[in-house]
Sequence to fold (92 residues):
Amino acid sequence: MDRPQETKMNLNCPVCGGQLKKDKIRENIWVDGKLLVIDNLPSKVCMRCDESIVDYKTMKKIEQIIEKFKHKEIEGIKFTAYEIDSVAVALA
Fold:
């Protein structure tokens, strides 16, 4: 069964309506004055305005990492997308 609204969201940028393509990005997040870097993050990037969008599951994992980083439950400042799964699971 087709889901037109979901398909439309996956194909067009919510900011400008441009076409989205799968890509990997670097997310730089400032947490309490410290820089947390996540490389190779799977996302969709707008070919027109460069807006990047991650899916819900990925965003929840990023939020878990930020919370662990805030409470000093993890050390280091740079992670790859591959490490997000292992760190989130290990610290859950």
Summary: Residues 1-9, 88-92 have pLDDT under 50 and may be disordered. The first strand starts at residue 20 and ends at 31. The chain has three helices and four strands. Residues 4-91 form a domain with the Ubiquitin-like (UB roll) fold (CATH 3.10.20.860).
